[in-house]
Amino acid sequence: METITKQSPQGCNNICPTPPPLPGPAMNCRRKGSATKGNSCASTATRDLWDNLFDRGYRADVTIRTNDGGIIYAHAGVLGMASPVLRGMLKQAKGVGHKRLISIHGVQHDAVRVFIRFLYSSCYEQEEMKELVLPLLVLSHAFVVPQLKRICEQQLENSLLTLDNVVDVFQLSLLCDAPRLVLLTHRMILRNIKAVSATEGWIAMKRSHPALEKEILESMIYEEQERIRKLNERKIYLQLYEAMEALVHICREGCRTIGPCDKDLKDDQKPCTYEACKGIELLVRHFAGCKLRVPGGCIHCKRMWQLLELHSRLCADSGSCRVPLCRNFKDKIKKQFKKDEMKWKALAKKILSTKRIGGEPYFLSSKSISSY
């Protein structure tokens, strides 16, 4: 190679040649114009080289037998590095000379070919993935190829999961240890149980795995019970919130024949719009005249004590609040045991989140409840 000096044409004025630009971000490689490829730091040319090595079988030293007498040629070094299971199979494989023979049965020949090709370049055709995603999921799990397994799960989750194949995917997800896919397919089955139960996949599962069908039906019953329980819980929290509103209304404005001592009630007062007002009014009257009153001595007074304490935890301004004992209960909160405090705080937060308010004039917001 000629040495560049000041006298040489290449070295005139001692100017170094401009270095080539740095390579840009890696692009997904393309094959036949329609392939979808996994991301890689390797250039497109390098990945095409690996694809060509597989397609042409140059100096292949492994023969793979598949279903229906199919043959695939591959290289032991590539297979052994890509899959620990294949590496173990190759150690035990027998063959003639340097050629080794292994068998992969149980799935169609095309699925094995796409799987082996993926081990070379991490490439796959989208049309092939759409057609062979289930056997590819099985192969990637059986031969411990986590990259391909993640791709299969993502493809199913994003676009390839349908009512016709959801039962098959559910069963394979259980066998292939894919918990997220199990959850997604299980939810899809429960949401569309009438349509799914008429598919061929459901009928086949009913014949081959009746216990699995029973578990799905039992889980559907459990989901319905949970839905009803949550609705009943929400109803209770809503009633408690309405009781808090009615209590503030009575103590601030007065209603019908009861109200603050400094406020005169009018005979022509409009009907009360608070549904819980009548019940709270009766409870307040009882509480004012009950001889027992202590918590535990009277069930009605005990309920009133609980409502007053609950109000104090929701109240936004105890200084100007007209509800009796509001400030007293606020002070009591500081001395309460941590376990009891957590229960009250959780109840207050659920009541506010059920009503979905963001800070009413008289009540805190659910975020404020979490912070105190």
Automatic annotation (TrEMBL):
GO-annotated biological processes: protein ubiquitination; regulation of DNA-templated transcription; response to hormone; response to hydrogen peroxide; response to salicylic acid
Keyword match Metal-binding: yes
A GO term for molecular function: calmodulin binding
Signal peptide interval: none
Alphabetical list of InterPro entries matching this protein: BT1/2/3/4/5, BTB/POZ_dom, SKP1/BTB/POZ_sf, TAZ_dom_sf, Znf_TAZ
Transmembrane stretches, start-end: none
Every BTB domain range: 60-128
The keyword Transcription regulation belongs to this UniProt entry's keyword annotation: no
Biological pathway: Protein modification; protein ubiquitination
PANTHER family registered for this protein in UniProt: BTB/POZ AND TAZ DOMAIN-CONTAINING PROTEIN 3-RELATED, BTB_POZ AND TAZ DOMAIN-CONTAINING PROTEIN 4
Protein known as: BTB domain-containing protein
Naturally occurring in which organism (per UniProt): Gossypium raimondii
